[in-house]
Amino acid sequence: MDSMGGPDGVDRFLASTNFLPAITKHTPRLLAELEGIAVGANARFADLLAHNLMDEYWWWSQDQRHREACSSVASVGPPALVGQTMDLDRFLDGSQCLISHHDDSATLAVLTSAGMVGLCGVSSMGFGLCVNALTMLTHSGSGLPVAFAFRGALAQPDAPRALDFLRSVPHASGQHYAIVGRGPHGQMTASIECSARGATTSAEANSNFGHANHPLASADIDSHASTGAEGSSALRQSALEAALPSVTNADGLMHLLSTEPLCEPRRDDRDWFTFGAIVAQIDDVVTINYALGPPDTDPWHTAVVA
Q1: Digit-coded pLDDT (tens) for 226-267
Q2: If you ran DSSP here, which 8-state letter would residue 170 be given?
Q3: Residue ranges of the domains in the chain?
Q4: Per-residue pLDDT tens for 17-36?
Q5: Which residues contact 39 (CB under 8 A, 6 or more apart)?
Q6: E strands, the chain, where?
Q7: Is omega for the bond preceding 184 within 30 degrees of 0, making it cis?
Q8: Fold of 71-305
Q9: At 277, phi and psi to the nearest 5?
């Protein structure tokens, strides 16, 4: 919320958009969760909602800088792996946490910023989900915001239905979703680029892939934006593709995500940094490795999700 100009800026943002109907329709349990966080934190619901709308605020604020942030990797294995660096504003440093959610059938382990419903994570139902901002794709002031699309997908019973969920909902912001998990015929991977006009497959099904912050398949570019296929995103995409053949285990993927250009260190001259990172291994047991800060300096931790 710090970047939104305080309560007045939050109120202007929310008054000129209309995300609550989509949230209520497609992820009602997350709306209740957010209301509970607001009560528990003695905070305005509007402020908590805005905190969960980072991707949406980026395009609403008409800041045309491409968000050169987040790199994801998926490998069908064995072992099946999915991981990413999550790159965000420096003012969020210190709010990193890994939260475990339990419901009737599953446990979710979610990397997030305190007060947010989630950024990336895994389900004990046998799949993981990572994301990359694609700010140049078309957006909608009434679609389902990224944080809610992510958690709504992660709440599905399995990886194929998580993919179906992301293909079926209306999206508020351009975003790439990487899914790795158990499918009907063994392990599966899926890569889709979502925009206000729908979802486009961006890597062959059940293949190994990497993704940075420009579209590899979608042509649904906003009329005021370029493709963004340059700069940091292009550099990281090349690094991801070059490293894919050597990503054969979780340790190797953690090492890859801990090095530049995929890891953005804390630097006084930059507003952005690697807020955190995850590497999930999907076997009979789901394991998540996570760093609560740039993994070039902050340690990796490991948890079994069951």
Answers
A1: 777 778 999 999 999 999 999 999 999 999 999 999 999 999
A2: P
A3: 2-60, 71-305
A4: 999 999 999 999 999 999 99
A5: none
A6: 71-75, 80-89, 96-102, 107-113, 120-123, 127-133, 175-183, 186-195, 198-201, 209-211, 272-282, 286-291, 300-305
A7: no
A8: Penicillin V Acylase; Chain A (3.60.60)
A9: -155, 155
